[in-house]
């Protein structure tokens, strides 16, 4: 069974709603989820917040957090996940921020680095994945797969 179908079924089973705050994936998570029939019963709203200003304005990400950690960081992904859950009223919020490439990387934050935040009922877990310089679309697709597989694992353990 496809990951997105498993996720929708699990969210329905738990009676949860989900909202995404996506930067480098720019809507791919929510787009993949709505390929599943009945996704409308778990997804009401999501945000593509590509610009830092949008993260601050719509998700409540602190400018100080961005300044101190950089936009591609677990603290920002955490605030994105918390913010989208709060704004949408969803039990599950997901934040994704990263460097898909082919440019924009640094030695400390290379191309292919993506940070994730998962908020479930107010509790947040964050992760950083180094997908490597595998191409812009491959980084984005790998990020979506990571979001769905990680969220399924987290939800099964709550």
Ordered list of secondary-structure elements with their pairings:
Elements: H1 3-14, E1 18-22, H2 28-33, E2 47-48, H3 52-59, H4 63-69, H5 74-88, E3 92-98, E4 113-120, E5 123-130, H6 136-156
Parallel strand pairs: 1-2, 1-3
Antiparallel strand pairs: 3-4, 4-5
Helix pairs in contact: 1-6
What features would you describe in this structure?
The chain is α/β, with parallel strands linked by helices. The chain is built from six helices and five strands. It has helices spanning 3-14, 28-33, 52-59, 63-69, 74-88, 136-156, and strands at residues 18-22, 47-48, 92-98, 113-120, 123-130. A five-stranded mixed sheet has the order 2-1-3-4-5, sandwiched between helices. The longest helix has 21 residues, at 136-156. The radius of gyration is 14 Å and the shape is globular. The two termini are 21 Å apart. The relative contact order is 0.18. The model has no long low-confidence stretch (mean pLDDT 97).
Radius of gyration: 14 Å
β-strand percent reads 15-25%
| Rough outline | globular
Distance between the termini: 21 Å
Q: How are the strands ordered across the major sheet?
A: 2-1-3-4-5
Number of strands: 5
Count of DSSP H/I helices: 6
Sequence of secondary-structure elements: HEHEHHHEEEH
Q: Brief description of this entry?
A:
The protein is of the alpha/beta class and 158 residues long. It has helices at residues 3-14, 28-33, 52-59, 63-69, 74-88, 136-156; strands at residues 18-22, 47-48, 92-98, 113-120, 123-130.
Throw out a few tags for this protein.
single chain, 158 residues, alpha/beta, five-stranded mixed sheet, 6 helices, 5 strands, 44% helix
């Amino acid at each position: 069974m496809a990951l997105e179908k498993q996720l929708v079924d699990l969210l329905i089973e738990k009676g949860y709603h989900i909202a995404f705050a996506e930067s480098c994936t720019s809507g791919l998570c929510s787009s993949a989820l709505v390929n599943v029939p009945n996704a409308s019963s778990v997804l009401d709203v999501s945000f593509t917040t590509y610009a830092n200003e949008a993260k601050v304005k719509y998700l409540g990400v602190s400018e100080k957090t961005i300044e101190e950690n950089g936009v591609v960081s677990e603290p920002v992904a955490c605030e994105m996940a918390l913010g989208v859950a709060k704004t949408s009223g969803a039990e599950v919020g997901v934040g994704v921020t990263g460097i898909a490439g082919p440019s924009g990387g640094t030695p400390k934050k290379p191309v292919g680095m993506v940070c994730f935040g998962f908020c479930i009922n107010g509790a947040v877990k964050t992760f950083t994945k180094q997908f490597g310089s595998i191409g812009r679309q491959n980084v984005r697709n790998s990020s979506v797969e990571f979001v769905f597989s990680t969220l399924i694992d987290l939800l099964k353990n709550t």
